[in-house]
Write a structure and sequence with these properties.
The chain is an alpha/beta fold. Helix content is 37%, strand content 24%. The protein folds into two domains: 113 residues, Periplasmic binding protein-like II (D-Maltodextrin-Binding Protein, domain 2, 3-Layer(aba) Sandwich), CATH 3.40.190; 102 residues, D-Maltodextrin-Binding Protein, domain 2. The protein is elongated and about 55 Å long.
Amino acid sequence: MDDTIRMLSTLGLMGAMRSLSSVCEAAIGMRIDADYAPTMALLKRLRAGETADLVILTREGLDEVIAEGRVAAESAVDLARSYVGIAVRAGAAYSDITTESALRKTLLAARAVAYSRLGASGIYFAQLIERLGIADKINDRAVIVQQGFTAERLVSGEADLAIQQVSELKQVAGIEVVGPIPRELQTPALFSAGRMVAAKDAVAADRLLRYLASAEAAPALRASGLEP
């Protein structure tokens, strides 16, 4: 009998799931085979026919696959909110980002800003710099990351600011999270999970979903930069 449960998850939950994996596996009595990618990339894979037992996506993404009949609506649970933040290479000097005017000045002063193409944070940031009236100037010297962690471009020296969900920035060694973009400028992403209709083990999938939404999982979510 197969003792593995397959999970597809947004990158934002990678840190929390890595710290929770052994506890989760003990709770459900199965090994978790997890694959992490941006929500948009996961949606594309699901629509191409890829299967799993459960998925963790942005709430908007989860609602889409529920509407498409891929995820059981009654299984959906909201896990955590996530805010977009800014990071620099460890030891690098950084400027204030606590107000809209300070953030605008800091972004314009950067040699290069790294942000994602497919992730929720990248979509948000593209809209933000348009709103701030600096999109052309930032994009002229931006490092666009197709998939993965933008903070890796700090370590490589390709950029001196990285934009991504705080929980994703914290997955990269050798960087420092300056802080979240002012909260009045952003709407937090809501990460949610659900069991796929074609799950090979619906009981185990539901058990894992209940654990991830429980108070026992909250400290790990918080430590990874999320708000349970």
